[in-house]
């Protein structure tokens, strides 16, 4: 086997590895949407408002892409599925 064949073989092996990794990166990005059940439970989070108290008018809410989209909460780390219509016992009126 000459040098050109060796280089070609090495390139194909490397390229094959890179192609194999791409779906794993895509899946891990897709799986990034997450909940934090422990914090939700400790703060008694619910997906519905408590009268006029809801995440969208709470100072801790991190809005999603639009007013109806799921967002985050500064008190519930790693959770990006907080409903703007949700509520928990840590609710604090947005200034
Ligand atoms: Fe919603 Fe509670 Fe977070 Fe406020 S503190 S945004 S009410 S989960």
Rounded mean pLDDT is: 84
Strand order of the largest sheet: 1-2
Rounded Rg: 23 Å
Helical content stands at 25-40%
Characterize the largest beta sheet: strand count, sense, and whether it forms a barrel.
Answer: 2 strands, antiparallel
Query: Alpha-carbon distance between the termini?
Result: 73 Å
Secondary-structure class: mainly alpha
CATH superfamily of the largest domain: High potential iron-sulphur protein
The CATH level-2 architecture of the largest domain is identified as Irregular
Silhouette: rod-shaped
- The DSSP helix count reads 2
CATH class of the largest domain: Few Secondary Structures
* Unique ligands: iron/sulfur cluster
Number of strands: 2
List keywords for this structure.
95 residues; mainly alpha; High-Potential Iron-Sulfur Protein, Chain A; 2 domains; two-stranded antiparallel ribbon; rod-shaped; binds iron/sulfur cluster
Chain-wise SSE layout:
Layout: H1 3-30, H2 37-42, E1 61-62, E2 72-73
Antiparallel strand pairs: 1-2
The structure holds iron/sulfur cluster.
Residues 43, 45, 55, 58, 60-61, 73, 75-76, 82, 86-88, 90-91 line the site of iron/sulfur cluster.
Outline:
The chain is mainly alpha-helical. The protein has helices at residues 3-30, 37-42, and strands spanning 61-62, 72-73.
């Amino acid at each position: 086997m000459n040098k050109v064949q060796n280089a070609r073989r090495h390139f194909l092996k490397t390229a094959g590895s890179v192609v194999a990794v791409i779906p794993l990166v895509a899946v891990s990005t897709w799986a990034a949407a997450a909940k934090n059940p422990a914090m939700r439970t400790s703060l008694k989070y619910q997906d519905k408002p408590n009268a006029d108290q809801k995440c969208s008018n709470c100072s801790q809410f991190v809005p999603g892409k639009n007013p109806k989209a799921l967002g985050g909460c500064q008190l519930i780390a790693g959770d990006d599925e907080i409903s703007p219509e949700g509520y928990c016992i840590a609710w604090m009126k947005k200034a």
